[in-house]
Amino acid sequence: MRYAVLGTGIVGRTVAARLDSLGHRVVIGTRDPGATLGRAEYSDWQEVHPEVGLAGFAEAARDGEVLVNATGGQEADAAHLDGKILIDIANPLDFSRGFPPGLDPVDDDSLGELLQRTFPGLRVVKTLNTMNCQIMVDPARVAGEHHVFVSGEDADAKKAVRELLHSFGWPEASVIDLGGIETARGTEMLLPVWLRLMSALGHTDFNFHIQGA
Amino acid sequence: MRYAVLGTGIVGRTVAARLDSLGHRVVIGTRDPGATLGRAEYSDWQEVHPEVGLAGFAEAARDGEVLVNATGGQEADAAHLDGKILIDIANPLDFSRGFPPGLDPVDDDSLGELLQRTFPGLRVVKTLNTMNCQIMVDPARVAGEHHVFVSGEDADAKKAVRELLHSFGWPEASVIDLGGIETARGTEMLLPVWLRLMSALGHTDFNFHIQGA
């Protein structure tokens, strides 16, 4: 499968590396490929992952069969996207009041819904946004059972995302389908307590488990 | 210990009954005791729990050594409250857009912080607001390990609340102290995903467990 991972930060790079290790063809999308390659953080990573491509957002999205949003928002180009799956693994972090960040949108809207409204031809599936990116691609980092949530309108798209999650190491029973894309409000609003748990626990190797589910 | 439970809904009644069963003296606070007794839901419950008192908010709060907030907000009277512990187990539900409710305040404030600001002489501890009220007072309803969060500024107040939680059946290891009252933002923002989990699972006998904590 050809994946376009939109976003060059630690989340995008971690997911791109995992997809690459599973044999997929991966292109990372960024606003300005030249500027991205000029950053040591990226170019050092690129040297270790020479087979992962880099392109502008529009080109990466056009080329990918499945898109993964690992940016805070609305960078994607709407051209040539109809019918594709957009896996939204991001949270709409709002640093305008400093750290810890809040969310924007929040409560009566979500990034997942915003993306689905902005690109009605895409089939948006929200998932993996409730944990550290190392756990996204390697759930066995956290011992014991824990959950990953899925939100989206399209049953076939959610089925395809489930299969991707299984290939990342998520057992069938660890996936909770919350329903439509509106339920992304709930999972995005886990971010504030996640940040405070990180502070209280002093690490990020934890995840939500819904006991009794 | 003398408890004042502010709020006559299912959450307040459930916690009041549990405190009563543990041998505490309990008075429920309400805006208008006559109107409350006129509602069959309350008077039927009162018949089964004749030893639980009912009084106006101010009188109940004045009489209680420890206060429990089980209302959406700002009903309490500030008189004679200095130094008391206020255990805030509520969420600031906002039904202005229908069901499922949103939260108000949200993201950059919380009910826990609002109560602490409004009554600086009280020692507010936010806890138990992340689960169904039956589980609050009987955590063994959910098999396996699961967590209850504590937020607040005063270490002694949090210690007293931990002891109350233990008496409800919460083991020491199940209590996660998130830090100051600001962390109530995080736990209140669990409500939206809780509501969507209730819909997806079809029941309320579940709770959050932080795997890896």
List the main descriptive attributes of the protein structure presented here.
homodimer, 213 residues, alpha/beta, Rossmann fold, eight-stranded mixed β-sheet, two-stranded antiparallel sheet, 9 helices
CATH superfamily grouping of chain A? NAD(P)-binding Rossmann-like Domain
The total domain count of chain A is 1
Work out the number of β strands of chain A: 11
Q: Whole-number average pLDDT of chain A?
A: 94
Q: Using the coordinates above, name the CATH class of chain A.
A: Alpha Beta
* Assembly state of the chains shown: homodimer
Structural class estimated from helices and strands of chain A: alpha/beta
| End-to-end distance of chain A | 32 Å
Q: What's the CATH topology label of chain A? A: Rossmann fold
Number of distinct helices of chain A: 9
Describe the structure.
The structure is a homodimer of 213-residue chains. Chain A has 213 residues and is an alpha/beta fold. Chain A has one domain (2-201): NAD(P)-binding Rossmann-like Domain (Rossmann fold), CATH 3.40.50.720. In chain A, 36% of the residues lie in helices and 22% in strands. Chain A has 9 helices and 11 strands. In chain A, the strands form 2 sheets. An 8-stranded mixed sheet of chain A has the order 3-2-1-4-5-8-9-10, sandwiched between helices. The relative contact order of chain A is 0.14.
